[in-house]
Specification:
Structural class of chain B: alpha+beta
Largest sheet of chain B: 6 strands, mixed, barrel
Number of strands of chain B: 10
Structural class of chain A: alpha/beta
Oligomer: heterodimer
Strand order of the largest sheet of chain B: 2-3-8-5-7-6
Shape of chain A: globular
Largest interface: A-B, 30 and 26 residues
Number of helices of chain A: 6
Distance between the termini of chain A: 16 Å
Helix content of chain A: 25-40%
Strand order of the largest sheet of chain A: 6-7-8-3-9-10
Number of strands of chain A: 10
Shape of chain B: elongated
Largest sheet of chain A: 6 strands, mixed
Order of helices and strands of chain A: EEEHEEHEHHHEHEEE
Number of helices of chain B: 12
Helix content of chain B: 40-55%
Radius of gyration of chain A: 18 Å
């Protein structure tokens, strides 16, 4: 569980992001301030088009912001040049997507090994660690399966294993249960909560799915480009 | 990441095969047309290469080997007197009509070799003995003459026919490279060739020569030109002069060039488009790789590896198919087909250009790709 007195793992101040130009310009983020702490799972909720995914992309350093500062694990992300930012992202962040984004030609183990291969870890070692991670998420008997031969829940667990295999300190999840049925979504969130409770990690989850709200430690509501409120969630799932 | 790149390439089997087919077709077309073109060029200077002598002395205004401009008989002695010349012999080359016993007429190229040395004789004899050319009325035909004049049942060793109303007797069949015009070649001695030919003031077509050992050929050729006022060329230079004349004065270069260019463009279009589609369809996956920390350089390397892997596979298959085509249709020298290493190297360069171009389109797309696409 987080402690608001400790330094924030993610510190966002005055984040502004617009798309388009002139009359068609739309400001999606209008001065966001947000702290996310190690050992917590933060839910980012709000209406569609409110800027959740844009904020997530900005925190991940895959979208340039127009104004403001973002610090991740003490590193001023928005000030890093693109190459260093990409390396930093590869070493410290893991990603889970709504559509899984697994490479269809690669087996489950090979997909999980990809972040390690990007970090130039030799293939046998990367595959060994990938198989171990798949075992941890309950897919030890599916390591050589192609994504097309796995169920949606299994594919998302492969994606989680891929996100965790290089032991990232910040896990960024975009609607991780949107493509899953209720029971599978619950299982996935249990896994993510376990990761979020680790004292040297934190998890950000963008979601619309109210059935999984009780898995979060805090919930930030993003409406019309602004954080309107941040609430702590009770352990029993009541807000 | 090379492993991931190759698995992505081979995993999309339909696109991989389409790419492979496009590149294979392009390579096969370019190699096949290029080999036929170069084969034809080799044929165009067959009158030179079949004689296999190092230096040709010609009229100074000569354009190509088949456009004979006769020299004065004294040219042989003048060339022999040039410092650095080891030997020089006369050569007769002219077009005559042969009349067979069955009454058929055929145009032939009569080649007269100096009788003492028979320099310029074909290297390989298929039937009979070439030395029998020294017998009275003896001539030697090449295998294409036999083919053109009706086959071995009509023309063989011992066959008698007329050349300009004079008797000629075939004593041997020699193997030569086919010529561009495919006019049958009949060999005889120089003196007899002059007797067969219609009377002309000048009968010497060329002087064939060799430089002394140790004397630089280029220097000897320059001295021949300066001291005799005649044209002098190495065998290679005279061959190129003839090839360039053919290229300049016929449409053959444009015809084959157009086909080869089409092969290049079609290959580039198919490969470029398919590769681009391959990249666009995998854009989310590439975006995910970028988000996971793969640099644009890493992705570019993956794309290049994919492009060159499929390209080199297509190169191998394309050359294999073109070679099989050449083997099936051109073995025995019946069709021009010269698949030289220079041609294969050129095609490899062309293919690498196609692959690089195809990969570049995709790399530009990926360089502009925002990894945030994976969250949309």
């Amino acid at each position: 569980m987080n402690d608001d007195t400790q330094p924030a793992a993610v510190r966002a101040r005055g984040i502004v992001k617009s798309f388009g130009a002139g009359d068609t310009q739309v400001t999606v983020l209008k001065g966001i301030d947000l702290d996310i702490y190690l050992g917590e799972l933060l839910l980012l909720v709000g209406e569609s088009g409110g800027g959740k995914t844009t904020l997530l992309s900005a925190i991940a350093g895959i979208l340039d912001i127009d104004d403001g500062d973002i610090g991740v694990l003490g590193v001023p992300l928005s000030a890093l040049p693109p190459g260093k930012r990409t390396r930093f992202r590869g070493q410290t962040m893991g990603f889970i997507y709504q559509q899984f984004n697994l490479l269809p030609a690669l087996t489950a183990a090979e997909n999980v090994a990809v972040p390690l291969l990007i970090q130039k870890i030799r293939r046998p070692e990367a595959l060994r660690r990938a198989r171990a991670m798949l075992d941890r998420v309950g897919l030890g008997d599916r390591v050589d399966f192609l994504p097309k031969n796995l169920s949606g829940g299994q594919q998302q667990r492969v994606a989680i294993a891929r996100a965790l295999v290089n032991e990232p300190r910040l896990l960024i999840c975009d609607e991780p249960t949107a493509a899953l049925d209720g029971p599978n979504g619950q299982k996935i969130m249990e896994l993510l909560r376990e990761v979020g409770r680790s004292p040297d990690r934190c998890v950000i989850v963008v979601t619309h799915d109210s059935r999984i709200f009780h898995f979060g430690d805090r919930m930030a509501n993003l409406t019309d480009g602004r954080i309107t409120n941040i609430e702590r969630i009770q352990q029993e799932g009541t807000v | 990441m090379n492993y991931v790149a190759l698995k992505m390439l081979f995993g999309d089997r339909a696109k991989y095969l389409m790419l492979l087919c496009g590149l294979t077709f392009a390579v096969m077309l370019i190699v096949q047309q290029g080999a036929i073109f170069w084969g034809l060029m080799m044929w165009s200077q067959a009158s030179i290469s079949n004689l296999n002598v190092p230096i040709w002395i010609t009229d100074p205004g000569i354009a190509q080997v088949d456009e004979v401009k006769p020299l004065a008989d004294t040219a042989v002695d003048r060339v022999r007197s040039v410092d650095g010349v080891e030997w020089a012999v006369p050569l007769y080359k002219g077009l005559l009509r042969a009349r067979l016993a069955n009454g058929e007429y055929h145009q032939i190229t009569l080649t007269g070799l100096e009788s003492a040395t028979l320099i310029g004789r074909p290297a390989e004899v298929l039937e009979g003995r070439f030395e029998d050319i020294l017998q009275p009325d003896a001539v030697v035909m090449d295998q294409w003459a036999v083919e053109r004049m009706g086959g071995p049942t009509v023309v063989t060793v011992g066959t008698i026919f007329e050349l300009n109303d004079k008797l000629a007797r075939v004593v041997a069949i020699a193997k030569t490279q086919k010529s561009f015009t495919n006019i049958p070649v009949v060999y005889t001695t120089y003196d007899r060739a002059v007797r067969y030919a219609p009377r002309e003031r000048r009968t010497l077509s060329y002087v064939l020569a060799k430089s002394k050992d140790g004397a630089p050929v280029a220097d000897v050729i320059q001295r021949i030109r300066t001291q005799t006022g005649l044209g002098a060329f190495t065998e290679e230079d005279f061959g190129w002069k003839t090839i360039l004349w053919v290229l300049k004065n016929t449409g053959i270069g444009i015809n084959f060039g157009t086909t080869i260019l089409l092969g290049f463009i079609v290959g580039m279009a198919i490969a470029g488009q398919t590769f681009y589609l391959f990249t666009v369809e995998n854009l989310r996956q590439f975006g995910a790789l970028k988000a996971m920390g793969a640099s644009t350089f890493t992705l570019a390397r993956m794309i290049l590896l994919q492009a060159f892997t499929v390209g080199l596979t297509g190169y191998g298959v394309g050359i294999g198919l073109a070679t099989v085509f050449g083997y099936l249709t051109a073995s025995g020298g019946g069709l021009p087909f010269a698949e030289t290493w220079q041609l294969l190297l050129l095609v490899l360069v062309a293919l690498l250009v196609i692959c690089t171009f195809s990969a570049l389109i995709s790399i530009i797309k990926l360089a502009r790709l925002e990894p945030a696409i994976v969250f949309r």
